[in-house]
């Protein structure tokens, strides 16, 4: 008898926080071909949830499973499956924008990494600054580089923390289209955001976080919740 594939991410009674819980327990499943948007006011736990699922913070309680296995960020399978852009400007000194992308693509054995990187440089508007170090480009360009690096490698799960930050409206629309393509290609995306248009444009479901409540809802309702903040 055929058994359905496990959820890409399965969260059960998860409590997140830095020693003190940031809200009530969370439970949800995220399957291939889905985009789950996490919305809420600043301090509601969106970024902490992303960092917990990424294995950067330990859960205070509950369980996270990725591709059917308990979360272990040190495992080879987890590192191969999970791509992240959590907004951290962490770059290697001495490397250019292009060299950062090449390092990611080559490190994950992407076929024709040079062509992949050139395409991403063009897509994220970085071609003209490709030979500059990240420290010499604008804050918005560094954010675009972080996103391009997440797309420069194979992935089953993409974790994005407020990808709209530091981007102009045109690039925000381009990122929304990119996430829609990721979804339609079978990828799973967990994205924390304050951008109602992004939620409307690519999400398949949403969680609204508050200090004492978690609500699962449709993307349109989540976008309205953002606009009401």
Tell me what you see in this structure.
By secondary structure, this protein is α/β, with parallel strands linked by helices. The chain has a domain at 7-88 and 155-228: 3-Layer(aba) Sandwich (Rossmann fold), CATH 3.40.50.300. Helix content is 36%, strand content 22%. It is built from 8 helices and 10 strands. The chain has helices at residues 46-53, 76-81, 97-107, 113-123, 139-151, 169-184, 196-202, 219-228; strands at residues 9-15, 26-30, 35-40, 61-66, 69-70, 82-85, 157-161, 188-192, 205-210, 213-217. The strands form 2 sheets. Strands 6-7-8-3-9-10 form a 6-stranded mixed beta sheet, with helices on both faces. It has a 4-stranded antiparallel beta sheet with strand order 2-1-4-5, with no helix packed on it. The longest helix has 16 residues, at 169-184.
What is the C-alpha radius of gyration, as a whole number of Å? Answer: 17 Å
Elements, N to C (H/E): EEEHEEHEHHHEHEHEEH
Class inferred from helices and paired strands: alpha/beta
Number of helices: 8
CATH homology superfamily of one domain: P-loop containing nucleotide triphosphate hydrolases
Compact overview of the structure:
The chain has a domain at 7-88 and 155-228: P-loop containing nucleotide triphosphate hydrolases (Rossmann fold, 3-Layer(aba) Sandwich), CATH 3.40.50.
């Amino acid at each position: 008898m055929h058994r359905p594939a496990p959820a890409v991410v399965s969260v059960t009674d998860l409590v997140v926080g830095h020693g003190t819980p940031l809200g009530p327990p969370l439970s949800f499943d995220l399957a291939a071909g889905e985009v789950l948007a996490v919305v809420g006011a600043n301090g509601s736990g969106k970024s902490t949830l992303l960092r917990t699922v990424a294995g950067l913070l330990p859960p205070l309680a509950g369980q996270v499973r990725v591709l059917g296995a308990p979360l272990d960020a040190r495992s080879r399978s987890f590192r191969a499956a999970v791509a992240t852009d959590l907004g951290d400007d962490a770059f290697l000194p001495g490397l250019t924008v292009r060299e950062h992308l090449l390092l990611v693509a080559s490190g994950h054995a992407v076929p024709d990494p040079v062509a992949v990187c050139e395409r991403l440089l063009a897509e994220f508007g970085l071609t003209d600054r490709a030979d500059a170090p990240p420290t010499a480009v604008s804050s918005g360009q560094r954010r675009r580089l972080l996103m391009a690096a997440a797309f420069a490698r194979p992935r089953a799960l993409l974790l994005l923390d407020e990808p709209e930050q530091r981007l102009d409206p045109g690039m925000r629309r381009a990122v929304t289209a990119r996430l829609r393509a990721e979804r339609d290609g079978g990828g799973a995306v967990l994205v924390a955001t304050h951008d109602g248009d992004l939620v409307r444009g690519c999400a398949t479901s949403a969680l609204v976080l508050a200090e004492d409540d978690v609500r699962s809802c449709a993307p349109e309702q989540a976008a309205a919740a953002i606009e009401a903040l």
